[in-house]
Design goal:
InterPro entries: CBM5/12, CBM_sf_5/12, Cellulose/chitin-bd_N, GlcNAc_Chitin_IntDeg, Ig_E-set
Order of helices and strands: HEHEEEEEEEEEEEEE
CATH architecture of the largest domain: Distorted Sandwich
CATH topology of the largest domain: Coagulation Factor XIII, Chain A, domain 1
Number of helices: 2
GO molecular function, one term: carbohydrate binding
Keywords: Hydrolase, Signal
Organism: Stackebrandtia endophytica
Number of domains: 2
Distance between the termini: 81 Å
CATH class of the largest domain: Mainly Beta
Protein name: Chitin-binding protein
Radius of gyration: 24 Å
Strand content: 25-35%
């Protein structure tokens, strides 16, 4: 049935009003930003990869560990830090008897910290906290378990790319199992993203002593790291050798040949063997 002229006017006004309201609401909503750490490998990434099971819904959305920013003064409650205060992601706070997979690192050593963003957003900073010596790996992480200040803070202005990394130095004096808490603070919302990564310090972080007697030289061109293979999957921090050089993965990868991904790619060149 055709509308009369007055009815058409009323209908047009209604449609216009609804459209204006929807546009206003959309404009007021902040863009969704999501991301997680790939190096050292985060708990949510291990869940997403299926390396760790019984993780609940986080296995489908490792990028969604979002909570209030301002840590440690604000942010997620103690015992819920690794999940960002999200009850649905509580398996990330489960210590699992201290048996989360660990990335091997060195006290006082340089490391490339990597992130993957599924929805990059304006950023104010990346901060990295670490557990104190003597912390209990059998309990969920609390503020009392963490050093009071981050060992690495990376200020950032603007929007990072979908894959982003930066270098930092682990603190001295750490041995054995520790947890790194990464906090990505979004600039124009009240939230941050949280990621816990379990690491193992293979060295003791002490100052080196006097050098010993030199040993017999090895064969030139020998690489200590295992050879890269296209069929193998590598987590962030993994070191491989390929074509006479060594490379370190910035995040999880499979099938990407070292030396072919460029400066912004997954493989960081460590030089010739």
């Amino acid at each position: 049935m055709a509308l009369t002229k007055p009815a058409r006017v009323v209908f047009s006004l209604m449609v216009g009003g609804i459209t204006a309201v929807l546009l206003a609401v959309a404009g007021a909503m902040p863009a969704s930003a999501h991301g997680y750490t790939t190096s050292p490998t985060s708990r949510q990434l291990y869940c997403s990869q299926g390396v760790v099971t019984d993780c609940g819904p986080i296995q489908y959305e490792p990028q969604s560990v979002e909570g209030p920013k301002g840590f440690p003064q604000a942010g997620p409650a103690d015992g819920q830090i690794c999940a960002g205060g999200n009850g649905a992601f509580a398996p990330l706070d489960n210590p699992r008897g201290g048996n989360w997979p660990k990335t091997s690192v060195t006290a006082g050593g340089q490391f490339t910290f990597g992130w993957t963003f599924t929805a990059p957003h304006r950023t104010s900073s990346f901060e990295y906290f670490i557990t104190k010596n003597g912390w209990n790996p059998l309990n969920p992480i609390t503020r009392a378990d963490l050093e009071p200040a981050p060992f690495l803070t990376v200020p950032f202005s603007g929007q990072p790319p979908f894959q982003y990394s930066h270098s930092g130095t682990f603190p001295q004096g750490k041995t054995g199992h520790h947890v790194v808490l990464a906090v990505w603070s979004v600039a124009d919302t009240s939230n941050a993203f949280y990621a816990c990564s379990d690491v193992d310090f293979s060295g003791n972080g002490e100052e080196p002593g006097e050098p010993g007697e030199p040993g017999e030289p090895g064969e030139p061109g020998e690489c200590a790291a295992s050879a890269w293979t296209a069929s193998s999957a590598y987590n962030g921090g993994a070191v491989v050798s390929h074509n006479g050089a060594e490379y370190r993965a910035k995040w999880w990868t499979q099938g990407e040949e070292p030396g072919s991904t460029g400066d912004w790619g997954v493989w960081e060149s460590l030089g010739s063997c």
